[in-house]
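[job 4417] fold queue: 2 targets
>>> target A
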Amino acid sequence: MASYEGTAPGLRTSRGCIAGVPDIFVLHRGFAHHIEVKADDGLVSLEQQSVATAILIGRGKYGVARNADEACALLDAWGVPRAGRVRVAA
């Protein structure tokens, strides 16, 4: 099991990472969709809960996925296409 305690959080913040920001961000048709990726035994931190609340208040979508199937299920529920190519208007 990987451990992210100790010096790693300090290293991430020194690189500009902000505590609580979800791992995956998808912008589709002008709407923000956020997915927090967690291990099977992982818990959402207080910082992540705070950011999730702000996202939801701002009418964004937020979900937690513990594997690829759950992430795809969230995208499907939100109506975000997972296949095909984006067409650019001429």
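>>> target B
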Amino acid sequence: MLILAGLGLNDEKGLTIEEIEEAKSADKIYLEKYTSIWFGNLDNLEKILGKKINLIGRRELEEDSYKIVEEAREKKIVVFVPGDPLFATTHLSLILECLRKKINYKIIHNSSIISAIGITGIHFYKICKIVTIPFKERANNFDYIKNSVKNRGDNHVLCLLDIDLEKNRFLNVKEALKFLIDINALSEEEEIVVASRLGTENSRIFYGKVKKFLDLSIDLPAVIIVLGKIHFSEKEYLENFRV
């Protein structure tokens, strides 16, 4: 059996009882840390579970994912993922491979940026698009990003910021906003919400005009919410975080 389990947004304290029980009875445990940031401690996680944890990267999870799935044919394999295990499409491919090969699988959900975004006061049902703002050298889909942000109407757009954990690189808020301005998707006078390190003790929320953020240093990881029409309850809430 293959078990995909989410680690949540912060550290090893985000483990659920179900995850601990499944991991303790597993034959092998993997942890991938390339699709998202995890603030936990590997040694502490191993102590909690009483098992050795094998770190895997992009190659093992994408090019060689069939090996993990094949292991799950005869053994109980747990793959831990930061956040929720199905937020990244990469992990969905593991489940698809299990379906193809008729191998049993289980998914244990946990908190993700999607569930945590409610702390900003934004009504989640009004988020119409989720886009990733890329590093310059990765930017190859200007039209989709531009149209998603510019044509949002009354709705909000959640902008995730690109990361490259293998090279320890993180796109910051200033770079992301300059990208949106450069492709004519956003103006400096529009109002946005920036949320930093959601799900951790150091989470922060900021609300204000784009130009206010161009000289503001914000801890990463962070997300940007480009606002459409704001409901009065959203407005009242957000005014507490104006910059």
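[job 4417] complete. Note on B: Residues 89-101 form the longest helix (13 residues).
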